[in-house]
Predict the 3D structure of the following.
Amino acid sequence: MSSRPIRAALLSVYHKDRLAPLVQVLRQHGVTLYSTGGTQKFLEDEGAEVTAVEDLTGFPEVFGGRVKTLHPKVFGGILHRRHDVGDLAEAEHHAIPPIDLVVVDLYPFEETVASGAEEQDVIEKIDIGGISLLRAAAKNFRDVLVVSSRDQYAAVTELLTAKNGATDLEDRRHYAAAAFATTSHYDTEIFQYMSQGTAVAGTALRLSAQPATPLRYGENPHQAGTFYGDLSALFDQLHGKQLSYNNLVDVDAAVALMAEFTDGEPACAILKHTNACGVAQAATLHEAYVNALSCDPTSAFGGVIIVNKEVDAATAAELNQLFFEVLIAPGFAAEALPVLQSKKNRILLRQKPVEFPRKQVKTLLNGIIEQDADRQTETAADFRTVTQSAPTNEETAALVFAGKICKHTKSNTIVLARAGQLLASGVGQTSRVDALRQAIEKARAFGFDLHGAVMASDAFFPFPDCVEIAGAAGIRAVVQPGGSIKDADSIKAADELGMAMVLTGVRHFKH
């Protein structure tokens, strides 16, 4: 029969919160309880009668609690098959009582790593007995119910209450799958920690992210989509509808770009389809937003906006005049929130400080590619002047600013800017000349005078044509990585036009 009553349970958990209601249900149904250490004390404090595991096994806990449940009487009670005559006979011969429910909450390995604890403390949080209990119970789901997380306690309590202390096969299979998801994630986190700095790290890729959040759809309505990860660790969503797949892609690009602006000066960026259509820094956040919007108010419609300062009332009032999808900020003034919340679907995210992964992965063909995240950003100290004319201090500041935006823009890209303000960019073009012409046309369309502006390129110029076109438009300084066999031609063109050019030696393709 698929329905099985729970008559005996083993409980061994690290976190005791949320457990009491489940214990109460087990007591109501007369379930025999086995436990160890702190869990046993908790159960007894709840008024439950508990049999210590060491009384079941006849063997004490040893090695400071490292070995508690690893014993045939425990694992035999979980793993013997109730429908197998031979297993039943062996269990009776060895006085191994059946265990129908296993409740285990693993040592917090992942949390201990995240806390920056010493290696020995981390190692001690590698659960051995607990993870073995989960695997054993999940393997024998035909007969045993396994509970692998405190997040399941409430649901299991409701299940046992509704089914009078019994479970069906589909219930047990569901929780078995969840247990294997728990053990798989746990082992992946251990692998990531233990393999750091070893030759093993590059021989296999192990990825695990949870929880899963179903999205309304993927990139398009006919595509299903899911986000795997803990968004709540990065954002508090204060208002608006659920984030979509495309929202998340743009939010990721926005957060990465704004991470470049940590010098304390208020900054604002407006993104559309992962590319910045407006970026500015100014003395106030209000001014930064106004300047960013002026870069391309057409593209800003329906975009994602990110700022690096608390949104004040004046900035909120200005923002409220634009239709945008998402606003990300480290904080919102009390008087600003009601203004921004006046549009029902507008998404407001309060960003929390968090460290991002140092590796990036992407599915490709029939596999996955991995690379180091691009964490390098060039400063004035990285510039090597190669022309007769050197950039002025103001031009240098503008080149640094433009380079930050260029790094986060789809290749091929050209960025035109002044100190503290993006003027225009040409993005995702198949030729660098097309990218430059697109940028010049956009800048002029929105009323910007390019005389005295600067230009940044994500890769080298294979020919001098870009320098010549930029010089004719009034551009006075250029930053680019260099590395072309024809660098000399571009440098010569810059000198003939009276332009300054600096090389960084670092390319920032973004595909």
Summary: The first strand starts at residue 4 and ends at 5. The chain has a mean pLDDT of 94. The longest helix spans residues 169-194.
